[in-house]
């Protein structure tokens, strides 16, 4: 490695701080971690050579606290700062302050950060650099005939929308002249009645868009490369969930065109370092500039897998003033890589509301070949309300997409996370979904595939039998281990297993490590090593290899017959009792006792992990009591407001 910096401060936390430290270690560079007081024993702090506390838990007092971070730089003599992503990574003020102190910012210069950070300015620069932008008419459309003329210039399909619009009102999509005339008429009537304003705008409608981004790398000598694309269409609430490189959708010509436009934009703003240009791509492979992220992206590992480059190492070299080592023709696409973002969140609540807790058990599937896990936590770590709920980025690689997907399936099955609710059930369903497997995806994938929200894996009759049989066999193996059945030499047991509120009677017989379980007249053969201390059970069920981790209730016949005498808990009336769906802090309370509220009216706002959630009334009612005020910290299930 050429001589770069002696010491780098990483102005971030969690997995990205750990990721940067790994490359620094490889390059022989000393590292400084910064941390908030609650992060004092975090993994990134343990990994770094030195660590400085920069304030209390809230991000604005610690990881965004520029004064404290500048002091940490002075105190440790760090010569450069890597900002990671988020926090101060795209903050031009921070970059300016570093420059004033003669400290290198491992990223682009302030001009590029500013130009690309402004939505309007970035679109103008992109247009001037001959980058495709979403075509539209900048002005108000006079009448239906003018609408047809403009639509003809933009090209179908177009979206006609109310200037004062919102909530989908006064919006029409037109695919031809006739629909444009009709759409103009309907939209202006709707807009007039909804907003008292009938002014309309027209822009190109991007049907079923894909979100595809191009990774660029540029040095301070005017050289720039594009490092292929990443397909990031699987999203929820505009946040990426699964990403892959390359995309199944692009052909070499479209890829090159997108790459060349991304590079010309980078050159237009004299960009240096790693950056990403995001595009929307329609069903006909037309692509349009969305924005440029002037930093390292969360999903950079998949690009590293298929190109063989270490992007953090490249960023450090570039910041030191070295020229790029590669030419465009050197950049390959080798194989296929997929990344699943593993979050501490409940996937059954609007595809994922944050969940907090301590990781009581945590095992990454690293014994599998071609699996990379970028994480910043370990067994015993706390997932807190103050920071992003990401547990890790699970990346699998293969010669083909099929191979990478198969490996992802295996990796998700072998990943052990206990103590917090996590989204592995959702990730596991996405990667085997026929639409995903065939590459038929768009940014609407999740709402289209799960219109009523994610309900979990629907067990087939065969899977249900396998699960019940394994639970029964596991129960017997555990009982034999503790010699509960010592006097019972029959080798035949009758058990009850509960699954999805149903109770199933099973007969179990055993010979050695093999169990035969009878369910509703069907036989299931289960065999394996039965290592009860392990969180993962590799078993053979009816001749097929399976990996299991689960929790089910198993009772002996006697216990089951007694359980019907146990009292049942009566569920509470959720329509009149409002509880916090997650841990967080109360931002605002909009009602007081005695107020009348309408169904769907906002009652209060809860903020957690940088997300604001509006809590609304489930029915029209009178407010009986209010149990929280702005500024309060609440836990999941805490009572907020009671209605009569």
UniProtKB/TrEMBL annotation:
Listed EC numbers: 6.4.1.3
Entry's Gene Ontology molecular function annotations: ATP binding; metal ion binding; propionyl-CoA carboxylase activity
Primary localization class, coarse: mitochondrion
Protein's pathway: Metabolic intermediate metabolism; propanoyl-CoA degradation; succinyl-CoA from propanoyl-CoA: step 1/3
Catalyzed chemical reaction(s): propanoyl-CoA + hydrogencarbonate + ATP = (S)-methylmalonyl-CoA + ADP + phosphate + H(+); butanoyl-CoA + hydrogencarbonate + ATP = (2S)-ethylmalonyl-CoA + ADP + phosphate + H(+)
One Pfam family this sequence matches: PCC_BT
Record keywords, A-Z: Acetylation, ATP-binding, Biotin, Ligase, Lipid degradation, Lipid metabolism, Magnesium, Manganese, Metal-binding, Mitochondrion, Nucleotide-binding, Phosphoprotein, Transit peptide
InterPro entries: ATP-grasp (IPR011761), ATP_grasp_subdomain_1 (IPR013815), BC-like_N (IPR005481), Biotin_BS (IPR001882), Biotin_carboxylase_complex (IPR050856), Biotin_carboxylation_dom (IPR011764), Biotin_COase_C (IPR005482), Biotin_lipoyl (IPR000089)
Residues covered by the Biotin carboxylation domain: 4-451
Top EC class, one word: ligase
Domain Lipoyl-binding: 565-644
Domain ATP-grasp span(s) in chain numbering: 123-320
Keyword Ligase on entry: yes
Subunit and interaction comment: The holoenzyme is a dodecamer composed of 6 PCCA/alpha subunits and 6 PCCB/beta subunits. Interacts (via the biotin carboxylation domain) with SIRT4. Interacts with SIRT3 and SIRT5.
Protein name, as recorded: Propionyl-CoA carboxylase alpha chain, mitochondrial
Taxonomic source organism: Cyprinus carpio
């Amino acid at each position: 490695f050429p001589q770069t910096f002696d010491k780098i401060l990483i102005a971030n936390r969690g997995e990205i701080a750990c990721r940067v430290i790994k490359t620094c270690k490889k390059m022989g560079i000393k590292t400084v971690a910064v941390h908030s007081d609650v992060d004092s024993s975090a993994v990134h702090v343990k990994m770094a050579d030195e660590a400085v506390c920069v304030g209390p838990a809230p991000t604005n007092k610690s990881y965004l606290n520029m004064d404290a971070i500048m002091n940490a730089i002075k105190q440790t003599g760090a010569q450069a700062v890597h900002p990671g992503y988020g926090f101060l990574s795209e903050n031009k003020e921070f970059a300016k302050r570093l420059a004033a102190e003669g400290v290198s910012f491992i990223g682009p210069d302030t001009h590029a950060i500013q130009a690309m950070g402004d939505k309007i300015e970035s679109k103008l620069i992109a247009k001037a650099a001959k980058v495709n932008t979403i075509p539209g008419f900048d002005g108000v459309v006079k009448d239906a005939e003018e609408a047809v003329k403009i639509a003809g210039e933009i090209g179908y399909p177009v979206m006609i929308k109310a200037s004062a619009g919102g909530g989908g009102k006064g919006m029409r999509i037109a695919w031809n002249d006739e629909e444009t005339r009709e759409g103009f008429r309907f939209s202006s009537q709707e807009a007039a009645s909804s907003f008292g304003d009938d002014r309309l705008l027209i822009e190109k409608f991007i049907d079923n868009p894909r979100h595809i981004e191009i990774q660029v790398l540029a040095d301070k000598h005017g050289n720039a490369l594009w490092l292929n694309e990443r397909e990031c269409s699987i999203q929820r609430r505009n946040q990426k969930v699964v990403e892959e490189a390359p995309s199944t959708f692009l052909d070499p010509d479209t890829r090159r065109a997108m790459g060349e436009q991304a590079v010309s934009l980078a050159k237009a703003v004299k960009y240096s370092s790693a950056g990403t240009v995001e595009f929307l791509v329609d069903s006909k492979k037309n692509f349009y500039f969305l924005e440029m992220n002037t930093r390292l992206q969360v999903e950079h590992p998949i690009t590293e897998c298929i190109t063989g480059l270490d992007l953090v190492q490249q960023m450090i070299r570039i910041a030191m003033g070295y020229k790029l080592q590669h030419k465009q023709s050197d950049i390959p696409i080798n194989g296929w890589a997929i990344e699943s973002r593993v979050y501490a969140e409940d996937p059954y609540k609007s595809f994922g509301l944050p969940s907090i807790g301590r990781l009581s058990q945590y095992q990454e599937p690293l014994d599998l070949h071609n699996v990379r896990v970028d994480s910043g936590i370990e067994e015993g770590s706390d997932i807190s309300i103050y920071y992003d709920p990401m547990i890790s980025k699970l990346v699998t690689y293969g010669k083909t997409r099929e191979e990478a997907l198969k490996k992802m399936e295996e990796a998700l099955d072998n990943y052990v996370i206990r103590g917090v609710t996590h989204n592995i059930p959702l990730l596991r369903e996405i990667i085997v979904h026929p639409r995903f497997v065939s590459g038929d995806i768009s940014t609407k994938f999740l709402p289209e595939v799960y219109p009523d929200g994610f309900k979990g894996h629907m067990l087939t009759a065969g899977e249900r039998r396998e699960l019940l049989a394994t639970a029964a066999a596991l129960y017997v193996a555990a009982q034999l281990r503790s010699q509960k059945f010592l006097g019972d030499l029959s080798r035949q047991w009758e058990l009850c297993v509960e699954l999805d509120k149903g109770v199933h009677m099973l007969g179990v017989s055993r010979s050695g490590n093999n169990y035969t379980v009878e369910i509703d007249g069907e036989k299931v053969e289960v065999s394996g090593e039965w290592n009860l201390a392990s969180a993962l059970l590799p078993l053979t069920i009816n001749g097929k290899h399976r990996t299991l981790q689960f929790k089910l209730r198993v009772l002996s016949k006697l216990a089951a017959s007694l359980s019907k005498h146990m009292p049942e808990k009566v569920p509470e009336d959720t329509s009149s009792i409002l509880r916090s769906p997650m841990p967080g802090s109360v931002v605002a309370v909009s009602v007081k006792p005695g107020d009348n509220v309408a169904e769907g009216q906002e009652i209060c706002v809860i903020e957690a992990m940088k997300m604001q959630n509006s809590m609304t009334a489930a029915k029209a009612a009178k407010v009986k009591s209010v149990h929280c005020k702005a500024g309060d910290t609440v836990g999941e299930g805490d009572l907020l407001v009671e209605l009569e």
